[in-house]
Structures are given as C-alpha cells and as structure tokens.
Design goal:
elongated; 75 residues; 75% helix; mainly alpha
C-alpha cells in the first residue's frame, strides 16, 4: 500500500507570491473601476463597488502577511 508523503513546507518565495497577488488584485480593481464607466445598472454598479471593497480588504490582508513573512525570513 502506497502512502503519500506531504511536500516539504517551502516558504522561500511566499513574499514574492503575495506581492504578485497584490499586484493582480490591484489590476482587477482598476479594470472593475473602468467598467463602472460603462455600467448603467445600479445593481451591477453596487456589485462592482462591493467586490472592490472586498478586494481592498484582501490587499490589506496580503500586505500584513507580506510583513509577517518578511519578518520571519529575517529571523
């Protein structure tokens, strides 16, 4: 019977991955803001604004995690 071995915990590139996630999220926010110019529906407009608010919260979490990872890698 074969047992699966877990992959080793490699966190060496976490900061870079998180920074990439922040960058992508910001690009998505900007695209959503641009799409607001072409949206007439109030419900669509509200949905886009709500999603961008969640994106802002995610970015704040990513940045906090980047800070934690950077501190951990220095120790």
């Amino acid at each position: 019977m074969a047992y699966n071995k877990p992959n080793p915990d490699d966190r060496s590139d976490n900061v870079e991955k998180l920074q990439s996630m922040v960058h992508n999220t910001i690009e998505n926010m900007e695209a959503a803001e641009e799409s607001l110019r072409f949206t007439d529906s109030e419900s669509q407009r509200q949905a886009i604004e709500d999603k961008n608010e969640r994106r802002r919260e995610s970015i704040a979490s990513f940045r906090s995690e980047i800070k934690d990872e950077a501190n951990d890698s220095q120790q």
